[in-house]
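Re: [ENG-882] Designed sequences occasionally contain unexpected residues at chain ends

Forwarding the minimal case from QA. Structure tokens:
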């Protein structure tokens, strides 16, 4: 199983055997999703006759739907089906959605296919990360952060390969093949998940909500815990309003740039590979060198501190994008390599905010509401994407002003997050006996 570099492990600290099935399932599913997403905007503009702002709006609405549906999948898992069954059965809708995109090339086909994928994602997104966390024994709590490093690394392994391959299929073969290959990958993801069925730890659904731990709405209650987590999540909405624009506005920006590399012209959709490729590099760099070096110097590296720094760094990604846009509007013929700085800042923000938030959400959530809390995390992504869709649809900002608007909004959100992070007091993990109950 591929994983990011780590210090040698003791026998006690090795991942359970079930993790390899979940890790490769995640890589294949992310290949399918990001491969399909990498060509959506270009397909809508080139083949379906969408205007650029309409394509960006549609892309962000779809992204919003993908990350809104997990709250319903989470409720289904935590109350009725359990995480395993929710992942298994809703993945079938995911496979069907890819098939529709491949065979029905029209605006209606796009709507039906993307709707099915959104429903399928509603089962996978909140449950897959929580289900992976369920596999870690209570006595090996230290493995949790490493698990989500690995989990996120596998996500980006799948997305790196797909954003190289799928845009080339769109440009040089056909839309049908370009959308069909992600469908095959999603079917493979489902198969890998099913093959591990005999090795998983299953946490049964809580068919009725357990009573509050302290009998009231205070610090110890489940409702209070969820509300405090939501306070941390809220400012991150703006991070997501910026983040997925590498697949929409940044891709359209790349379309207007010189993309010749070593005598070969890369597809505009290929540029998105920078995000995933950099994440594959930066996760082990931060985990193996940066964070330990800070700890040795007496700097306590906490989840909320990492996320705070990530929020501020993300501002710089859109400052850099605005600078590139200014040069393009001024008539400069820029090579696409000028987009690298904006990707570097975005990926640093991603590693510090998004990767860390998975660990934070799982560790802080009441046990019986872990899928729900993961679902609420994905709701922040949905709202952020819909915010971007609204801005694109209103079409009030163009060019440099568009990127400057998002940079300013991100800066304000970073200051709000810093204040919330200072207020929040992390909940300590329960004793091993309680966690295993």
């Amino acid at each position: 199983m591929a994983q990011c570099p780590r210090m040698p492990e003791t026998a006690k600290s090795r991942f359970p055997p079930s993790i390899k099935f979940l890790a490769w399932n995640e890589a294949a599913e992310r290949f399918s999703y990001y491969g399909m997403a990498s060509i959506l905007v270009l397909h809508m503009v080139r083949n379906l006759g969408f205007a650029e702002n309409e394509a960006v709006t549609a892309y962000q609405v779809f992204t919003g739907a993908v990350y809104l549906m997990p709250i319903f999948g989470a409720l289904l898992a935590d109350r009725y089906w359990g995480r395993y069954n929710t992942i298994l059965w809703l993945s079938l809708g995911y496979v069907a959605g890819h098939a529709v995109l491949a065979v029905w090339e029209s605006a209606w086909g796009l709507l039906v296919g993307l709707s099915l994928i959104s429903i399928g994602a509603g089962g996978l997104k909140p449950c897959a990360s929580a289900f992976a966390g369920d596999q870690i024994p209570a006595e090996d709590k230290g493995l949790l952060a490493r698990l989500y490093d690995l989990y996120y690394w596998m996500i980006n392994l799948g997305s790196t390969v797909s954003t190289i391959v799928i845009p080339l299929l769109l440009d040089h073969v056909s839309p049908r093949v370009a959308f069909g290959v992600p469908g095959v990958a999603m079917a493979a993801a489902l198969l890998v998940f099913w093959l591990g069925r005999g090795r998983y730890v299953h946490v049964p659904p809580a068919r009725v909500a357990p009573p509050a731990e302290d009998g009231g709405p205070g610090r110890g209650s489940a409702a209070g815990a969820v509300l405090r987590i939501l306070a941390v999540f809220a400012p991150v909405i703006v991070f997501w309003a910026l983040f997925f624009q590498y697949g929409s506005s940044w891709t359209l920006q790349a379309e207007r740039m010189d993309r010749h590399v070593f005598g070969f012209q890369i597809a505009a959709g290929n540029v998105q590979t920078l995000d995933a490729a950099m994440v594959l590099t930066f996760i082990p760099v931060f985990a193996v060198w940066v964070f330990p070096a800070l700890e040795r110097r007496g700097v306590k590296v906490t989840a909320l501190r990492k996320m705070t720094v990530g929020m501020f760094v993300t501002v710089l990604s859109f400052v850099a994008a605005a600078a590139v846009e200014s040069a393009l509007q001024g008539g400069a013929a820029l090579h696409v390599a000028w987009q690298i700085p904006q990707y570097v800042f975005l990926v640093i923000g991603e590693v510090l905010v998004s990767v860390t938030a998975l660990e934070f959400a799982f560790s802080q959530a009441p046990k019986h509401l872990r899928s729900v809390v993961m679902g609420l995390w994905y709701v922040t992504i949905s709202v952020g994407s819909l915010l971007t869709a609204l801005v694109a649809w209103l079409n009030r900002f163009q060019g440099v002003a568009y990127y400057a608007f998002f940079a300013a909004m991100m800066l304000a959100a970073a200051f709000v997050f810093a204040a919330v992070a200072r207020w929040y007091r992390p909940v300590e993990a329960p004793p091993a006996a309680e966690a295993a109950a």
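QA comment: On inspection the terminal residues look reasonable. The chain has 16 helices and two strands. Proposing we downgrade this to a documentation issue.
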